[in-house]
Amino acid sequence: MKSAHRLLVAALIAAIALPGAAFAAKADKKKNNAATETFASVDKNGDGNITQEEFLATQKDKLGEEAAKTRFATLDKNKDGKLTSDEFGGGTEEKKKRRKKKDQN
Questions:
Q1: Is 61 within 8 Å of 50 (Cβ atoms)?
Q2: Could you give the CA distance from residue 89 to residue 105 in angstroms, rounded to a whole number?
Q3: Could you report the per-residue pLDDT of 40-53, keeping only the tens digit for each?
Q4: How far is CA 57 from CA 15, 36, 78, 86, in A?
Q5: Domain extent at residue 42
Q6: Which residues pair with 82 in a beta bridge?
Q7: What is the CATH number of the domain that holds 24?
Q8: Core-most of 16, 38, 40, 83, by most CB within 10 Å?
Q9: How much is the CA Rg of the chain, to the nearest whole Å?
């Protein structure tokens, strides 16, 4: 009888948890698609890298030229003068960490 009760509880937990996991996976996929589209729109020549010139062309109106240069330098982790999709997406992760840290305080 105990094992039947445990099995029922486990089934209920799984029934509750699975839709939440599927929803989270779908949200992550949307974020990745949005990041990929944003990267592609900034990568004007389509070579898979964003140069400082490409970055400034799209960001200086939003941030100002000096702030855009500073942001590019921050994102360019390996300091090679270009952003890969990982480096470009990394800015989003840094924002999340800062926001989470701020929320905890």
A1: no
A2: 25
A3: 888 889 899 999 99
A4: 49, 18, 21, 20
A5: 2-104
A6: 51
A7: 1.10.238.10
A8: 83
A9: 21
User: Looking at residue 45, what DSSP letter applies?
Assistant: T
Residue with tokens 């003068």: 81
Say how many domains are in the chain: 1
Element (H, E) at 82: strand 82-83
- The residues, ordered by sequence, that sit 6+ positions from 71 with a Cβ below 8 Å of its Cβ are 55, 59, 63, 91
86: its two tokens: 């990982």
pLDDT in tens, 79-91: 999 999 888 885 5
The span from the CA of 69 to the CA of 60, in Å, is 8
Strand partners, 50: 83
Question: In residues, how long is the chain?
Answer: 105
Indicate whether this model's pTM tops 0.90: no
**Is the torsion defined by CA of 40, 41, 43, 47 positive or negative?**
positive
How many CA atoms are closer than 13 Å to the CA of 6, on its beta-carbon side? Answer: 3
